Amino acid sequence: MRHCQTVHITACGCGNFLIIAYRELRALELRIHERLQELDPSRAQLSLDAESRVHVRLSQFYGFELEEWPATIARTAMFLVEHQANQAVNLTLGYAVPMLPLQDSARITVANALQAEWSEVIPPTTSLYIMGNPPFPRNSPCCGVVCGHVDPDLSDVEAGSLVA
After folding, report:
1. Low-confidence residues of the chain, pLDDT below 50?
2. Is 24 within 8 Å of 31 (Cβ atoms)?
3. 140: how many CB neighbours lie within 10 A of its CB?
């Protein structure tokens, strides 16, 4: 995550994409630490500052969600996947990353990503990945623009991209 400092999901729902992205990045980071220990066994000693070895943090993950309940589920699930990743570090490398007090968390904002002022949610950066699903109308198998129904939030959408 050195090159990408933040990951942002525009319609995070209950956070599944955020959870998987975080889990896989932490697993990759763990494999890197394992390999470094193989190359330099002196790194295998207990770390008194295990937290400093973790570079993928919950605070680097952002999401927008329209409803409060799925956003709460996403925040809670992110804490759980962080705990699982920390347990994997403990089992594999022999040092525990402290969990308490809970200070770091995913930044899930309850708002419409098409209407929100993003600069108030995400700090300006040159290293940001934004991922998202196109906003589909509820109870419809296709996008509102394709089906002839134009959602007011989609009035500026043409051919899958936002028009400035």
Report:
1. 1-2, 140-150, 157-164
2. no
3. 12
Name the token pair of 61.
């993950």
**Residue 125 structure tokens:** 């950066």
**CB-side neighbour CA atoms (13 Å) of 87:** 7
Give one word for 94, left, alpha or beta, with left for phi > 0 and alpha for psi -120 to 50: left
Q: Where are the alpha helices (DSSP H) in 59-122?
A: 68-93
Estimate the crossing angle of helix 68-93 against helix 16-39, to 10 degrees. 10
Which run of H or of E encompasses 63?
A: strand 61-65
E-assigned strand segments in the chain:
6-9, 61-65, 107-110, 128-131, 157-158, 161-162
Helix (H, G, I), strand (E, B) or coil at 70: helix
Q: Which two tokens stand for residue 23?
A: 């889990």
Which pLDDT does position 45 carry in this prediction?
A: 58
Q: Please state the φ and ψ torsions of residue 151, each to the nearest 5 degrees.
A: -65, 140
Residue 131's nearest CA partner among 27, 23, 20 is 20
Query: Which one, of 68, 56, 75, 79, lies nearest residue 15 by Cα?
Result: 75
Cα 151 to Cα 111: distance, rounded to the nearest angstrom: 16
